[in-house]
Amino acid sequence: MPSPIYTLPPTGDYGEPAEPLRTQIERGLRGTHLPTVPGTTDEDKQWAYRRSVPTVVLYDEQGLRLYDGITSHAKEYYLFEDELNLLKDHGPEIAEAMGFPTGSYPPAKEWKPARWGDTEVGRYNNGVNGEEGLAAGISRGWDIVELGAGALRKTAHLLTALADALPDQPGETPITYHALDLSLPELDRVLGQMEEGYGAALGGRVSLVGLHGDYNAGIKAVRSGTLSQLSSGPGTPSMSADPGSPASAHLVTPAIEAADLPAIANEDELSLTCDDNPKDKDSKGASPTSPASPAARPLHFLFLGSSLGNFARADAAAFLKQLPMRPGDTLLLGLDGRPPPGRAGRHKVEQAYNDPAGYTRAFEEHGWDVARAHLGLAPDAGVEFVGRYNEALGRHEAYYRAKRGQTIALSDGEVEIAAGELLHIEWSFKYSLAEALALFDTADLTVVESWKAPGSEYRLWLLERPPVRFSEPGPSVPSLAEWHELWAAWDHITAMIPRELLHQKPIDLRHIPLFYLGHIPTFLDIYLTHNGGTPTPPAYFRDMFERGIDPDVDDPTKVHAHSAVPTREADWPNLGEINAFRDAVRARLRARYAAAEIPRTEAGYSAAEFTRTEARALVMAYEHEAMHAETLLYMLLQSPLTRPPTRTPAWCLEQWTGQVGGARFGEIKHSTPSILDVPATRVVLGHDDAEAHDAELGAVGDHEFGWDIEHPATAVDVAPFRAHALPVTNGEYHAWFTREASGTASGKGEAGVIARAPASWIRHEGDWAVRTLYGPVPMAVAAAWPLTASRDELAAFARSRGGRLPTEPELRALWAHPLGPKQAPNAAFRHWHPVPPAPSVRVPAHGEAGEDGRAHSVVHGHNGGVWEWTDTLLTGLPGYMAGKLYPGYSADFFDGKHYVVLGASFATVPRIARRSFRNWYQGNYRYAWAGARVVYDV
């Protein structure tokens, strides 16, 4: 039986009706008033152009067959062969990384604490740790959607590997593969060939479905949730051709009317943060990778052939970001890398895109005939294909060059194309490793695994949405969606705590982890009750969980007022009771938001209406939970029992080692100045947010709420000083520590040395390593990361360099410096660890240009994802008033021992990473994710 094919309704980039191809062609031929120069050199000026032809003209039925000729016969086109061999050689590994069962089913090994680079730990603690396993996955099935399927010669190897991963099991076919492409005849042909050549290998495990349409139409079909309906039915017997176009006989574009297509729902977005019924999710305690409902099938996108390279870099990130992927879904992306700089690399790319036998030339020049046909013109060999590799921009550029002057009739006039004029047709961007990782960050994707072709820069990347995600915060009160994001993060973090750790203290200066599981919902419930209603039962939770501890490090018996907690494990409530209480409090908050939602416009927008006091309480409760999430994580860092937050791909180790570049510890080189001269300036600390005025000010509006320690906005003059462009790294401190600090522990043996080392370090297999949530990372890798240590440890290092730590105003001044770092780029769990910091880079006018051909002045650096210590003792700003809702929030710590820290760590949520936020720790507190940089007086 032939595979069904469904023609999808065409749609534009944002869901509007698709623009007719003729309109796109005419707009490109009319061109722009000023030419686009692809770079800044004299050579670049020779490739300037004003007109373009849409790339889609290349991919009609005949064009797809011509492209198939390139991949079949042009050996210079290395991308196809490299990707084919990766899928052949690594198909089983890819299937396993995508979450499909392995030959050992069910998994034979139970979960164990992961070590660096382990591949046996299931993604998000699912699978091998036994929380859900893969049995449910087989009965539920999987959907595979390939964007731009093409000839399927490569895909066949992956589908075979996926089929081989499944055990024999009677019933419905578990995997449905959906091939999306523009050409209906080509879809029919290649799916038929797949059935004929691989039907026996796929039978009973993989069913094939064709989707006739462009990327936008296919993504809309996925987003609307209709894939499950496309695995049965008669399919599309024929397409609707536009009778007004003589090209319709051979140009295959999506039909205007869909034939036999199941109804598409009204743009119901797939939930990316929590279940459609969050209450159910809370009560079940589902893992972060659970689908939106028990019936939801995991979805895996395939986007092969480095087709993403045809997008401009910014457009590529936007395209990936809008893919409707839920936690647990993946994207297998083929992406070509930049070749080594120089003549050989340039020649390799130019040969790949203009092979000597002429297969590429025939493919590209056919597109000109297609464009003319859509304009009602006969074929004409009036242009020739030319191209070049633009090394500065990292892309191959394809153009038509007019062989002679010519006039082309459009619907509303004519255009004159001069002899020798260039018309842009296609870009093929290449991505360095750093560019690829930046692309994924921008697109809200994280790497599960990567496979690199030997002798080439071509890679397959398996990507997924991060398990913890935060959108940009609103201007005032957290939205309910922001709460759902925070709860997903909290639940993910607490799922890292095995039961045997619930009653242990990873840090003596804090409670057991179980306390914080009860403290967070209790705090929220107290502040909900403050604004009306009755406390959520059980009442004794308030006495037990209201406030935690932050004792004096030197004398832990000195501690502020706090809740009395049980001393025996048997006297604590059990985890089930605490989780039930958590769910009830969350439901209470949802109900309050629902009651406050008032329609604002006829379009259906709404906004939450709260009193100013209630709004402040909600902000406090949200940020309180976010701060404790970070605290809980750095507590868990100290325990070997902690489960890892995600699977650790082996490529990370390779990449980080490469970033160190073989440099000795403390000798990592950068091309920019290591010391910045910061001139005299004025900075503003804090913001204006007087809690005492809440009752009289009324409406919340866009007011930015904060804590008492942030009010009022205070201008401070800063004298000139000099500052290191980068924070102190593990490597720098290691070199100093082993040379000097360890000497002071002589006579105390190994134990004395270990006791004096930063708490973020650990002895591992006889050497120093850095603690991470994945296990110890060798110092050879983590040497490039920012050191996290106490203020006292970092101040001692600064003194050894003849410097000191910056004051609070000085650190603000550094961040405002034209070459200063950004405050918090590695925050909000973008990574679950620090990364090597980077200095700001000034790009000169004659250097590498951006895509617009213009040089960029400054690319700002970052500190790697840590808070930064200052040498400023914690105190209120002038005009400080202790808060009424939480009187002891900051005042309890004006003791001459706590110092201000600024910025954010990798585990800080965006709302807290604001400019006005002032954090603090005791100067000798060793566990926070806080680093520092050395500054000098002028």
UniProtKB/TrEMBL annotation:
Residue ranges constituting the DinB-like domain according to the UniProt record: 483-631
Keyword Transferase: yes
GO biological process terms on file: methylation
Keyword tags: Iron, Methyltransferase, Oxidoreductase, Transferase
Biased composition (Low complexity): 285-294
Pfam families, A to Z: DinB_2 (PF12867), FGE-sulfatase (PF03781), Methyltransf_33 (PF10017)
Region feature (Disordered): 227-249, 271-294
Residue intervals of the Histidine-specific methyltransferase SAM-dependent domain: 50-223, 295-464
Domain of life per record: Eukaryota
Annotated metabolic or biological route of this protein: Amino-acid biosynthesis; ergothioneine biosynthesis
Composition bias, Polar residues: 227-239
Protein name: DUF323 domain-containing protein
Species: Cutaneotrichosporon spelunceum
